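Hello Y.,

Per our agreement to keep a running log of every chain we model this quarter, I'm adding this entry. I've kept the format consistent with earlier entries: sequence first, then predicted structure.
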Amino acid sequence: MLYKILIVDDEIEVRDLLRDLLKNEDCQSVTCASGEEAMALLSKEAFDVVLLDIKLSGTGGLEVLKDMREKYNNLPVVMITGFGFDEELIGKSKQFGCCGYIGKNMPIAEIISTFKQIVKEAKQKGSS
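Predicted structure for the entry above:
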């Protein structure tokens, strides 16, 4: 297994798609629909990386990212966006410590390659 991944998105179709894509890449994924659920899972289980939707219903992705940084500072968090690459949101997310972005509208091969590259860089940075 390459990585154990927490996928946080309020759209079940997106969670299922990402879970299935990453399963094909030999990753184990756990999915949830909210930031609160994600924080509860993180308190009980160790994950190698989190895929976090930037536009969650309820507590938004940026707030969840801030909470994750406070409690799990070295955990790589990749933001998922379906709204294009909003420069203001990108700036705030980077300020809060995300390690990259995946667009929901990206081709599947690009989602996988982008994810692998972001996680590889984050892991190398964390171990150096």
